[in-house]
Specification:
This protein is an alpha+beta fold. Helix content is 45%, strand content 18%. The strands form 2 sheets. Strands 1, 2, 3, 4 and 5 form a 5-stranded antiparallel sheet that branches. It has a 4-stranded antiparallel sheet with strand order 7-8-6-9.
Length: 308
């Protein structure tokens, strides 16, 4: 059995905004990955994973997928009996797509009609996103389908709006002083409760207004500037986005990072933003001088994901 690898993903821009039709930009992240394997189930991890897959397969039997995206659930069940498990080092609750990679791996292996990431059309991408939303909703309630889509495509994806996504080229990495990096908050985040807080906030008109007029505006401006490699407008809008999140997404910011978040805004040495739903897991950092930011954030575990 060949074991294709499914990488984690990072949503650079669009957290929460994509629920309200903002744009999003997401990248595969090869540091973390997972693949379906067979085993004799001798470890706790394998047993747990196999058991989770069994429960997931039972869920798959209850859902109705469009004809061209149907899964061979029977074959999946047989493989689970033979010891199938998902061998993954993608941390759960860190906002890097652990359930997305699993869904992508299952779809890739058990879809009756095979799809290739290279030849997929924009229309098929749109339909596949909806299917992945159904497949992933088992793990944390309502899902946009974006995470599994990124993991399946293994390419940067531009989320144009709620319905439409497209493959996109991001500027080539360069050896420069600037960097985009991850900071480990040291705690696990749970998507469900965070999304709940967001929907509660959405009930107030003032929050809805500022989300649409400010957050989504800065978010989309960051994406456009980044893709065009216009770093001055990029950092200008990024600061506004970081300030907005500090004021309005307080519950989603891990407590261990409150002060560091504020310090970045006060010194302009770096800016922080949520990576996924927040509450824990990773936080994203952006800086034009990584060496300086690194010193200021000593004590936190960091991983560079992109240099410029």
């Amino acid at each position: 059995m060949t074991n294709p690898l499914f990488y984690a993903k990072i949503l650079l821009f669009g957290e929460y905004g994509i629920i309200e039709d903002s744009q999003g930009l997401t990248l595969p992240y090869s540091y973390y990955k997972g693949s379906l394997k067979f085993s004799t189930l001798e470890t706790d991890f394998m047993l747990k994973s196999n058991d989770s897959l069994r429960k997931y397969a039972q869920y798959l039997e209850t859902i109705d997928l469009p004809h061209e995206f149907q899964l061979d659930v029977e074959a999946l069940m047989l493989d689970i009996e033979k010891g199938l498990y998902f061998d993954s080092n993608i941390p759960q609750g860190y906002g890097v797509g652990s359930s997305g990679a699993l869904v992508a791996a299952i779809f890739s292996k058990y879809a009756i009609r095979k799809l290739s990431a290279e030849t997929i059309s924009k229309e098929q991408l749109k339909a596949l996103k909806v299917v992945f939303g159904t497949l992933e909703s088992y793990f944390h309630g309502k899902s946009s389908g974006i995470d599994p889509l990124i993991c399946f495509m293994n390419l940067p994806i531009l989320i144009e709006n709620k319905e439409s996504v497209d493959k996109v080229s991001i500027p080539k990495e360069e050896v420069g002083k600037g960097a985009i990096f991850l900071i480990d908050s040291g705690m696990v985040g749970e998507t469900g409760p965070m999304v709940q807080i967001f929907f509660e906030k959405m009930k107030t008109e003032g929050f809805r207004k500022t989300l649409k007029e400010e957050f989504i505006h800065y978010n989309n401006a960051c994406i456009h500037a980044f893709l065009k490699k216009e770093m001055n407008p990029f950092f200008k809008n990024l600061k506004k986005l970081s300030v907005w999140a500090y004021e309005h997404f307080k519950p989603m910011i891990p407590e261990s990072l409150y002060n560091a978040w504020k310090k970045g805004l006060d010194t302009n040495a770096y800016y922080l933003k949520l990576c996924g739903s927040g509450g824990g897991g990773y936080i994203l950092g952006f800086t034009q001088d990584y060496e300086k930011a690194e010193k200021m954030l000593s004590g936190f575990q960091k991983e560079i994901i992109y240099r410029f």
